[in-house]
Amino acid sequence: MAISxxxxxxxxxxxxxxxxxxxxxxxxxxxxLVKGLCPFHNEKTASFTIYPDSxxxxxxxxxxxxxxxxxxxxxxxxxxxxxxxVLAERAGMQMPEDGYDDSLAKHRQRILAANREAxxxxxxxxxxxxxxIGLDYFLGRGLTMQTIKHFGxxxxxxxxxxxxxxxxxKGFTNQELYDANLVRKSDKGERTxxxxxxxxxxxxxxxxxxxxxxxxxxxxxxxxxxxxINTSDTLVYKKSDGVFALNFAKNGNPSQxxxxxxxxxxxxxxxxxFTNSIACLGTALTQEQARLVSRYAExxxxxxxxxxxxxxxxxxxxxxxGRTGVRIRVLKLTGxxxxxxxxxxxxxxxxxxxxxxxxxxxxxxxLREREKYDLDSIDGKTKFLTSIASILATANPIEQxxxxxxxxxxxxxxxxxxxxxxxxxxxxxxxAQKKNRFNEIVKETVTPKxxxxxxxxxxxxxxxxxxxxxxxxxxxxxxxxxxxDELTEDLFITEFNRRVFTALAERLENGRSIELSMFAAEFxxxxxxxxxxFGAMGGTVSNTVxxxxxxxxxxxxxxxxxxxxxAAELSDEEFKKLFRKTEV
Length: 584
What we know:
The structure is a single chain. The protein has five domains: about 5-90, DNA Primase, Chain A; about 105-235, DNA primase DNAg catalytic core, N-terminal domain (Alpha-Beta Complex); about 245-365, Dna Topoisomerase Vi A Subunit, Chain: A, domain 2 (3-Layer(aba) Sandwich); about 375-445, no CATH class; about 455-584, Orthogonal Bundle (DNAb Helicase, Chain A), CATH 1.10.860.10. About 50% of the residues lie in helices and about 10% in strands. It contains 25 helices and 17 strands.
């Protein structure tokens, strides 16, 4: 899918990568560079770096990197053409009509259109006599008509083909509906039969940050199983990334987001005025969801159900959100099993008071440990304080001192004794971390992982020479004409670096631009990270033709070794052919 160099150059000129990234990352100037915490992995020390001069970014922690197109692709989970379109619209540019294959982008748009039309169908059906049962369900849950319309709620009729027939009348094909997971198919018999995925269910549309309907959740209206049917992963929806109502919540409270367990809890909270509430989709909170939520809040308040499953989910969420750097507080739900029930029983002021009194993650962990032990016995008290020491070992010194003083007063134990146990717990934790890190280093050394260039581990010397050559050419394009007679793609031993060099040489040979944006169409976002790394190697290469010639010499030596090994594996006839070919 080729987009002209002229278009990409103009797009680059009109796009400031810092302004593209700043809505997602809190950035700060470090001399000529701009840094922040990487949005693609968890870190506490900023290793995500923007290079304004080259309009590129690179993370020294996880290897993510590239240009503005690559960033949009990764952060919004888009394909290449869609990312270019996003940036073009942002820059006020009209996409060229010809010159690229946008069939995947068009198919994605058809799926989004199908979801939008299906949402209209479910809502209009619910508002008709046929769907009265669905409307009664939502009204019975205490929702107002304003809330029902605000969230676009609907009803899937008690029919196996009602949606299918309607969508076919709107011009959608069976395959488009199947790819959107709006219908399923059965291949029994000679024909393929399609039927509705959602039947006799209250429907909740899932809407992304751009206002697109990307998925649905369908709840039964009785006690039948399964209770929920949700859209499976599609071209426009990935369950592990999905967050319900974030499109509303990100505007509800700029510093705080409430994380509830389910759709109905969130909808009830929004109706009660807590418009900063969201629910993470899927069976368990994922790191991707936590990172997404952390972009829009400095603090998350966990409001999971009070049952055992909800408490397990709370523990997991504390661990995952803890890696993002946001503040964490946990609601203790008293008087009801979930936010919806508490608001119905006691009103929104009761829930507000629970928020105001929510414990932070350390306080919550202490409360949970307190419930496990008999604090009237010496044994129970000892075990409790030992477990608390492990919790406080993760806190800062001021928090450790404050909690130790409070516990000392409550338990009639010396504060110094508690702090000594905290120090021992911290040392144990530090030793465990060192051991784990050592094991990781050993594992990486023995079996290093490189998903971008898997051949690197087998050809370290050659790969390093390849990387220096590529970096040198990217930083000094004029070197190419001085070394091109000695350097061909056949000298490259690793397939990935050969691809990079071939693409680079083709552009240099024809006097075309070698800005990162020019390569984004033919390399994946992960591969673009490696190209960005090459571009960031200015301080590790000498930027001389002599160094390039040394690298070429290394590659020739490594190639000769490789050829010798391969020749030894040839049959007699193949060996003779090799000499005949050489003589010619």
